[in-house]
Amino acid sequence: MTKYKKGRVVKGLVTGIESYGIFVSFDEFYSGLIHISEISHGFVRNINDYVKIGDTIYTEILEVDEEQAHLKLSIKNISYKNNNTRKNKKINETPMGFTTLEYKLPKWIEEKLTKLNIN
Predict the structure, then answer these.
(1) What is the DSSP code string of 20-89?
(2) How far is residue 71's CA from residue 73's CA, in Å, rounded to a whole number?
(3) Distance, CA of 19 to CA of 101 (rounded, Å)
(4) Which tens digit of pLDDT belongs to each residue from 66-113?
(5) How far is CA 86 from the centre of its chain?
(6) pLDDT tens sequence across 14-64
(7) Strand partners, 73
(8) What is the torsion angle, in degrees rounded to the nearest 10, for the CA atoms of residue 22, residue 25, residue 30 and residue 33?
């Protein structure tokens, strides 16, 4: 059973650009084509405005040809430059830790209560 199925969003490497579309490689077996009509809902004047050879992009699978190991792809309905996951960043603790919060919180609560009573 293949991991490539219609409707799935997968990450691939742009390996070629022609006037009619973008070639994308996924592994040692599967490759695919994003036809120019599947790049954008609007008119695509220059495909190079969207991707460059060597870019890693996300693509939506429209059709799978198991016999040829070829995928028909689209990027026009997805965020193809990233998959909307955020990178984990280390949070550096300040030297004062929670001390600032300890001092400021009562004041913030008092200000909010005062504001609520006025309105």
Answers:
(1) TEEEEE-SSS-EEEEEGGGT-SS--S-GGGT--TT-EEEEEEEEEETTTTEEEEE-TTS--S--SPPPP-
(2) 6
(3) 58
(4) 999 999 999 999 888 875 545 566 667 777 777 778 888 899 999 989
(5) 10
(6) 999 999 999 999 988 899 999 999 999 999 999 999 999 999 999 999 999
(7) 34, 61
(8) 0
